[in-house]
Specification:
single chain; alpha/beta
Length: 238
Amino acid sequence: MSSDAAQGDQAGDRTGGPARTVRVVLVDDHRMFRTGVQAEIGRTDETGVEVVGEAADVDQAVTVITATRPEVVLLDVHLPGGGGVEVLRRSAPLMADPERPVRFLALSVSDAAEDVIGVIRGGARGYVTKTITGTDLVDAIFRVSDGDAVFSPRLAGFVLDAFASTDAPPVDEDLDRLTQREREVLRLIARGYAYKEIAKQLFISVKTVESHVSAVLRKLQLSNRHELTRWATARRLV
């Protein structure tokens, strides 16, 4: 099928609107970003995308996705409650449903290899950055709903390198020692957040934040948060 024909199938004729509709859930912890995406792609009569739910953290995401069973979930990588990888883990039965599979497209500000590979290993069908245009995002949503894999151009290389051989080494052995929650705390510390701010962001106590920071420092063999920030910056985790 030609690209023009494929676009015709997606968009329908110019007068009749889209030939079909893809139901989408937006998962991102920034409300203003969700509002912007909704405004950009949620004009169903024009785009064929129907936003059927939103979520700001892992628990909300799993609840909304289970309740609405969308074709595609736009998933941020960094979320309170365990991150995008945790949403994927808890949504595995929905992704495996042969009749109505829920497919995931990561939409993140991060272009770090560790983030890209983490969600692809978790089952996401693609990964695009938030610099994507509304038109291209709609196209990516339709492609993912059809079972295709979609990546921003530079990010595809990360995935090809990671899966080039079955015995490919981890992206970063030091980082692999950390739990998902420890990675979240690490990123927020490196971004300059105070312990109280991190606790509020992740819905945990300050004491729990302190425990996670101590664990991160111990596992990475670092002495203080300044060394931790340099370590994270060098790996483009900030």
